[in-house]
Amino acid sequence: MHSVVLTKGVPDFREGQVSFDEDGHLERGATPTVMNPNDEYALQAALQTKVKQGGTVSVMSMGPPGYESVLEEAMSVYADDLYLLSDREMAAADTWSTSITLSAGIEQIAEADQSGEPDLIFAGFKTADGETGQTGPQTCWCLDRPIVTHVIALDVDEDEEKIRAKRLVEGDVDEIETVEAPLPAFVVTDPEFDPSYRRAEHRLRHKQLKAETEERVEEYEDHLTSWSAEELDLDPDFIGLDGSPTIVSGVDPIPKAPSEREATMVTPGDEDGMEQVLDEMRPLAGGD
């Protein structure tokens, strides 16, 4: 069982971390980059699959060379190997041209892997910077696979070559829907995804794999493969800015909060101080 997890580097939106230029554009070079938080659920789903079915887990990202740190972070959750698609031709891509590039990378993995195309591809619900939730489904469309979205629980039946998933259906009343799809398949995990390890052998295997990846991440570069646009045989007209049909009409920057704030330290043994805290909280608790 071979799983591929797609991840993205996003700006660290914690207070005081985001930088904008005078025109209100995000300065990515001056803003720390972290792994997209929703992608961790996709990684957890892939890890659960490896624990129960065996096989390998690959993690792929498209971005500048600095995204190696994002893949390192992803490996700390779990990964056997890492793939970075990096080239100036890929820069300024929207979700569509990003999906074209990612699908080419997945096909390249399939060609390099003697076992053929990956059985499962996982993606997170949406990214913290774009919030569109389009890249996963669009990549799936390029690969022409069945897709299950908003997955909160997953089981794989290798004998019947299909997955069974529970997915969250949001509406006036949230419902849980149980669906099946044939392998190979594409899975978009929901932030409500909860990995399940009910059997003792699975819990032990999970612990073992986590220990292995903690050792592996110390030398993550040895498990990293980088591919350029040329190596992926990508047409420059269909990737990066040239291949992006999206037109951004405007950007509203997030106000940059002060990196430091004034704070008053109060210990539980300070009765006067605790009384002042309660005085501050009472109006808020009352809704004022």
Walk me through this protein's architecture.
29% of the residues lie in helices and 22% in strands. It has 288 residues and is α/β, with parallel strands linked by helices. Strands 9-8-7-10-6-1-4-5-11 form a nine-stranded mixed beta sheet, with helices on both faces. Strands 2-3 form a two-stranded antiparallel ribbon. Strand 4, helix 2 and strand 5 form a beta-alpha-beta unit. Helix 1 packs across helix 5 and helix 3 packs across helix 4. The chain is globular, with a radius of gyration of 22 Å.
Molecular shape:
globular
Q: What is the radius of gyration?
A: 22 Å
Instruction: Report the CATH C-level class.
Output: Alpha Beta
Helix count equals 6
Instruction: Calculate the mean pLDDT score and round it.
Output: 89
**Secondary-structure element order, N to C:** EEEHEHEHEHEEEEHEH
Helix amount: 25-40%
CATH homology superfamily: HUPs
What's the count of strands?
A: 11
Q: Provide the structure class.
A: alpha/beta
Binned strand content: 15-25%
> In the residues, how many domains can be counted?
1
Please give the largest β-sheet: 9 strands, mixed
Q: Mind telling me which CATH architecture this is?
A: 3-Layer(aba) Sandwich
Main attributes of the structure:
two-stranded antiparallel sheet, 11 strands, Rossmann fold, alpha/beta, 288 residues, 6 helices, 9-stranded mixed β-sheet, 29% helix
Summarize it.
With 288 residues, the chain is an alpha/beta fold. It has helices spanning 39-53, 68-77, 95-112, 135-143, 200-216, 271-285, and strands at residues 2-6, 9-11, 33-35, 56-62, 81-85, 120-123, 147-157, 162-169, 175-182, 185-189, 224-227. It is 29% helix and 22% strand.
